[in-house]
């Protein structure tokens, strides 16, 4: 028997293949099943042009047979088989794909797209097998041949017997090593699991003999083990089915089966897109937040299939970060895969699909917001924060896309409103979109700074999420209306001028004195234009607001950011007269009052008092 040699380059390629192309050993089964499916598809193609050939789908199948005793795993198909020459050419030459050549000869037909294209998948068998035997009989031939190889040292081809047309790939499974449990590839449950994971939607049945417990004949309760042939794969992917035939229950079932989440999806969309890119997709918006969603451990991505075969579990490139909560899958025949079928090269098609999908998700959310407000608010409670991160990140690149999906609590409506709803209600003289920040709605309701804006009849948006103000700073304005923090310097509201020049002069001296007293703590002390009933509040000058100071300083790397704080005094409050009096008569008292007011303003803002003991002592001083 003549032993033929792999060419030198092929030898190296095979070694590389076996050790490094595929990151997981289990995919050998995906590759061999895909080849088997291609082989059956080839008969289907031939039958299209050969009137003597009838393609009866029921006659074709793939069978996976595990033999623990002999440590063999056989992948049998009833496909087109290989002649002696084909065995030599297709399996003797690495990176030669008979399937690719076949594809070039036959035009693609209604979804029967061949999977193979690189001519390497077969060799992945050597990742788990010491020896691979291929017994094949080609369609239209009376002869069968056996190809055999133990890997890099070459292969033999000899005639043999085989009654049916088709191919048996017999793997002699390796012995266990410390790192790898090869026995698992002979276990029925493990093989079923791998088939389900990667090859569930191969369109021909993948059969296995499975041991099941059945009642012994003639007995009423005695169970015996019986071998039963079962079809493991579901064959028709739900996404290839007609939408009209599917019910919401079917989609929910699919969501559960695929382990997208433990909850029920709040919304799903089934896409069947044809055009510059062709793909099918089913996308789900979950109802509840995955427990690790707002952590680094959360991995975004959609399952990616090519031709019904799973290529990637979580293809991150298919989802923008701001929609990272979306679950689901995409199947496309028009992707250019790389050789390991695991990662995609920077694929133009993939980019197009991703763009398309992002648009679809947005329109789904928009229609939910418009037509199912309650549902949308439920969604927003879970993932609204992510949308706001989306506005803020990438220097605001996505703000236009996301701004109409945002909701904020409104002081007037006492519920969540969109920016569009806010702006459409603005009175003509209102220049800004006003907002107030705080840790809860209840807390903001009591903020003295909101008084004058609320008094004017203007609506105020309440920002209770730490990201809110950062996101809004990135947007700057909405529909040409700038955002304005009610604590910021100029509120754009004309206050009635009640101080005379002389009063201003006198007050200024008092404020300068107080500013001096609070040196290092505030950058200014001034008469407030926003207070009505409260005596005092803090506001900020410059870009960094007090809320931002709080959030930034709560970060682990504590950047020690300080807002320029301004102590605002309500000159129409009785307390102001007390201050004036103390300024003239008793500077010690004024010092005491200044410290007290400053600390009160800190408390109102939810900021820590620098010296609580001193503060309580000061209060006691005025009590006795
Ligand atoms: N079960 C089979 N029946 C018939 N032909 C087969 C079978 N398995 C492999 N072949 C032939 O061998 C060739 C090489 O197979 P291999 O899996 O290495 O590559 P491929 O399937 O063409 O491409 P890919 O690397 O993308 O899987 C195939 O193109 C096909 O012509």
From TrEMBL:
<feature type="region of interest" description="C">
    <location>
        <begin position="551"/>
        <end position="624"/>
    </location>
</feature>
<comment type="similarity">
    <text>Belongs to the heat shock protein 90 family.</text>
</comment>
<feature type="binding site">
    <location>
        <position position="31"/>
    </location>
    <ligand>
        <name>ATP</name>
    </ligand>
</feature>
<comment type="subunit">
    <text>Homodimer.</text>
</comment>
<feature type="binding site">
    <location>
        <position position="167"/>
    </location>
    <ligand>
        <name>ATP</name>
    </ligand>
</feature>
<feature type="binding site">
    <location>
        <begin position="97"/>
        <end position="98"/>
    </location>
    <ligand>
        <name>ATP</name>
    </ligand>
</feature>
<dbReference type="GO" id="GO:0005524">
    <property type="term" value="F:ATP binding"/>
</dbReference>
<dbReference type="InterPro" id="IPR001404">
    <property type="entry name" value="Hsp90_fam"/>
</dbReference>
<keyword id="KW-0963">Cytoplasm</keyword>
<keyword id="KW-0547">Nucleotide-binding</keyword>
<dbReference type="GO" id="GO:0005737">
    <property type="term" value="C:cytoplasm"/>
</dbReference>
<feature type="binding site">
    <location>
        <position position="90"/>
    </location>
    <ligand>
        <name>ATP</name>
    </ligand>
</feature>
<keyword id="KW-0346">Stress response</keyword>
<keyword id="KW-0067">ATP-binding</keyword>
<feature type="binding site">
    <location>
        <position position="96"/>
    </location>
    <ligand>
        <name>ATP</name>
    </ligand>
</feature>
<dbReference type="Pfam" id="PF00183">
    <property type="entry name" value="HSP90"/>
</dbReference>
<dbReference type="GO" id="GO:0140662">
    <property type="term" value="F:ATP-dependent protein folding chaperone"/>
</dbReference>
<comment type="function">
    <text>Molecular chaperone. Has ATPase activity.</text>
</comment>
<feature type="binding site">
    <location>
        <begin position="117"/>
        <end position="122"/>
    </location>
    <ligand>
        <name>ATP</name>
    </ligand>
</feature>
<feature type="binding site">
    <location>
        <position position="341"/>
    </location>
    <ligand>
        <name>ATP</name>
    </ligand>
</feature>
<dbReference type="GO" id="GO:0051082">
    <property type="term" value="F:unfolded protein binding"/>
</dbReference>
<dbReference type="InterPro" id="IPR036890">
    <property type="entry name" value="HATPase_C_sf"/>
</dbReference>
<protein>
    <recommendedName>
        <fullName>Chaperone protein HtpG</fullName>
    </recommendedName>
</protein>
<feature type="domain" description="Histidine kinase/HSP90-like ATPase">
    <location>
        <begin position="24"/>
        <end position="177"/>
    </location>
</feature>
<dbReference type="Pfam" id="PF13589">
    <property type="entry name" value="HATPase_c_3"/>
</dbReference>
<dbReference type="InterPro" id="IPR037196">
    <property type="entry name" value="HSP90_C"/>
</dbReference>
<dbReference type="InterPro" id="IPR003594">
    <property type="entry name" value="HATPase_dom"/>
</dbReference>
<dbReference type="GO" id="GO:0016887">
    <property type="term" value="F:ATP hydrolysis activity"/>
</dbReference>
<keyword id="KW-0143">Chaperone</keyword>
<feature type="region of interest" description="A; substrate-binding">
    <location>
        <begin position="1"/>
        <end position="341"/>
    </location>
</feature>
<dbReference type="InterPro" id="IPR019805">
    <property type="entry name" value="Heat_shock_protein_90_CS"/>
</dbReference>
<feature type="binding site">
    <location>
        <position position="35"/>
    </location>
    <ligand>
        <name>ATP</name>
    </ligand>
</feature>
<feature type="binding site">
    <location>
        <position position="77"/>
    </location>
    <ligand>
        <name>ATP</name>
    </ligand>
</feature>
<dbReference type="InterPro" id="IPR020568">
    <property type="entry name" value="Ribosomal_Su5_D2-typ_SF"/>
</dbReference>
<dbReference type="InterPro" id="IPR020575">
    <property type="entry name" value="Hsp90_N"/>
</dbReference>
<feature type="binding site">
    <location>
        <position position="82"/>
    </location>
    <ligand>
        <name>ATP</name>
    </ligand>
</feature>
């Amino acid at each position: 028997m003549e032993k033929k040699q792999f060419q030198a380059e092929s030898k190296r390629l095979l070694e590389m293949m076996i050790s490094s192309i595929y990151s997981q050993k289990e995919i050998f089964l995906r590759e061999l099943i895909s080849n088997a499916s291609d082989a059956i598809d080839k008969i289907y193609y031939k039958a299209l042009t050969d009137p003597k050939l009838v393609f009866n789908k029921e006659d074709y199948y793939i069978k996976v047979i595990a033999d623990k005793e002999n440590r063999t795993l056989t992948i049998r198909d009833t496909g087109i088989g290989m002649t002696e020459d084909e065995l030599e050419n297709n399996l003797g030459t690495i990176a030669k794909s008979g399937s690719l050549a076949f594809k070039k000869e036959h035009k693609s037909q209604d979804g029967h797209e061949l999977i193979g294209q690189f001519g390497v998948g077969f060799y992945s068998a050597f990742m788990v097998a010491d020896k691979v035997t291929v017994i094949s009989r080609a369609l239209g031939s009376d002869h069968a041949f056996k190809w055999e190889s133990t890997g890099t040292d070459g292969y033999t081809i000899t005639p043999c017997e085989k009654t049916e047309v088709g191919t048996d790939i017999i793997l002699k499974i390796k012995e266990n090593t410390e790192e790898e449990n090869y026995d698992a590839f002979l276990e029925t449950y493990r093989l079923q699991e791998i088939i389900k994971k990667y090859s569930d939607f191969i369109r021909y049945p993948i059969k296995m003999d499975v041991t099941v417990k059945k009642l012994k004949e003639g007995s009423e309760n005695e169970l015996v083990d019986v071998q039963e042939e079962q079809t493991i794969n579901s064959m028709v992917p739900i996404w290839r089915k007609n939408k009209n035939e599917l019910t919401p229950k079917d989609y929910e079932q699919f969501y559960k089966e695929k382990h997208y989440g433990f909850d029920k999806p709040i919304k799903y969309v089934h896409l069947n897109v044809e055009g510059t890119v062709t793909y099918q997709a089913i996308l789900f918006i979950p109802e509840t937040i995955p427990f690790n969603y707002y952590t680094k451990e959360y991995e975004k991505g959609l399952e990616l299939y090519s031709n019904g075969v799973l290529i990637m579990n979580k293809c991150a490139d298919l989802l923008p970060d701001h929609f990272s909560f979306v679950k689901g899958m995409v199947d496309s025949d028009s992707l250019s895969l790389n050789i390991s079928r695991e990662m995609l090269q920077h694929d133009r098609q993939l980019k197009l699909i991703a763009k398309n999908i992002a648009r679809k998700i947005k329109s789904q959310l928009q229609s939910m917001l418009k037509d199912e407000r309650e549902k949308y608010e439920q969604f927003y409670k879970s993932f609204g924060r992510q949308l706001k991160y989306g506005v803020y990140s990438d220097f605001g690149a996505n703000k236009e896309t996301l701004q109409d999906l945002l909701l904020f609590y409104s002081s007037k409506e006492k519920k969540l409103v969109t920016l569009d709803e806010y702006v459409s209600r603005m009175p003509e003289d209102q220049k800004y979109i006003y907002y107030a920040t705080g840790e809860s709605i209840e807390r903001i309701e009591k903020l003295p700074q909101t008084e004058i804006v609320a008094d004017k009849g203007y609506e105020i948006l309440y920002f209770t999420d730490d990201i809110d103000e950062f996101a809004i700073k990135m947007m700057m304005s909405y529909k040409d209306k700038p955002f304005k923090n009610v604590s910021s310097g100029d509120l754009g509201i004309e206050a009635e001028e009640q101080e005379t020049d002389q009063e201003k002069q006198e007050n200024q001296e008092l404020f300068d004195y107080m500013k001096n007293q609070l040196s290092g703590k505030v950058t200014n002390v001034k008469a407030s234009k926003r207070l009505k009933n409260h005596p005092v509040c803090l506001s900020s000058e410059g870009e960094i607001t007090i809320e931002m100071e709080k959030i930034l300083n709560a970060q682990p790397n504590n950047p020690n950011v300080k807002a320029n704080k301004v102590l605002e005094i309500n000159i129409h409050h009785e307390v102001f007269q007390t201050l004036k009096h103390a300024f003239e008569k008793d500077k010690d008292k004024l010092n005491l009052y200044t410290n007290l007011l400053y600390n009160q303003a800190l408390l109102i803002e939810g900021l820590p008092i620098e010296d609580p003991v001193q503060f309580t002592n000061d209060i006691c001083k005025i009590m006795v």
